[in-house]
Structure formats: C-alpha cells, structure tokens
Amino acid sequence: MKRFLCFLFLCSCGFTPMFAHNDTDVYVPVISGINGIELRNALNTNFGGQKPETAPYSLVVNLRSPQTKYKAIEPSGYATWQEIAITANYTINYNGEKIASGTEKASESYTFVRYLVASNAAYNNAVENAINVLAEKISARAIAEISKHQQGTVQQ
User: Contact 106/145 with Cβ under 8 angstroms?
Assistant: First the structure.
C-alpha cells in the first residue's frame, strides 16, 4: 500500500525519471587512444547510439592515461594488489557554446601476480571496468546538465 501511495505522489508532482528519454541527441567526438575508443563506445551506447556531428549537443572528453599504484606489498617486497585510476575532463557544448564542464574519476583494484599473462589480463579487466564506470558517471552528468539546459531554454 505504501508503495502505491508513493507512486501516486511521484506521478502527481510532475516527477520524470532522468533516464526516461535514453535517446539523447549528443555527439561524442573521437577520444584518443585505445581506452578512448572504449569510452566513446560506452558513452554512445548510454546516449542511445552514435549521433551525427550536426547534433545540437556535443560532449568533448579528454581522457588521461591510467595511473597505477600499489595497494599491498608482501614482506618480500613483491606487490600483490594494485589500483588503476582513470580521470577524464569533459565539456558539454550546445551549438558550439559551452554549457557545462567537469572532471570524473574511476578506479578499480586488481590482484597483481608474478605470471605475466595473468597480470596483463587482470590489468586489462580493471581498465575495462574503470572505463565503464567512467562512462556511466559522465553520461549521467551529461544527461542531467542537458536536461537542466533544456528546461532553462523552454522556460525562457
């Protein structure tokens, strides 16, 4: 019963979910590097597919190289746990005019072992997971800023 009342309250107040219109008209230009390709693909997926350059909104992303730091070291001096951190700066433009910008960071930990193949696989999985988290953060922020911008232009 409580859930039904909450639902009625939300419907009557004009609340609309932020991701209700997942097909956002945002062009994401090429982001350099292998990780940039993965990030761009994830962002385009979150925006409902790749849009043409003529889209009114554009999201320009500058992706920094992953930074690795040791999290656990054995008494022998070997590292056993590492963290990968990836940072991206972004700018949201509307018809060439900047409407928002920011920085997002994502990190992922992974086990570092002495076997080269296993270490590379763990590192690559950690980078992929961090890229996906970064894409979620940036797309959520972009959709919020675009929604706010669209409401501001409708009211004017």
Answer: no
Where are the extended beta strands (E) located within the chain? 26-27, 57-63, 67-73, 79-94, 97-111
| Phi, psi at 58, each rounded to 5° | -135, 145
Quick: pLDDT tens for 45-62: 999 889 999 999 999 999
- Domain segments of the chain as ranges: 22-155
What count of other Cβ atoms lies within 10 Å of the Cβ of residue 5? 9
Structure tokens at 76: 């022998």
Q: How far apart are CA 87 and CA 143, in angstroms?
A: 19
Which CATH fold topology does 22-155 show?
Double Stranded RNA Binding Domain (3.30.160)
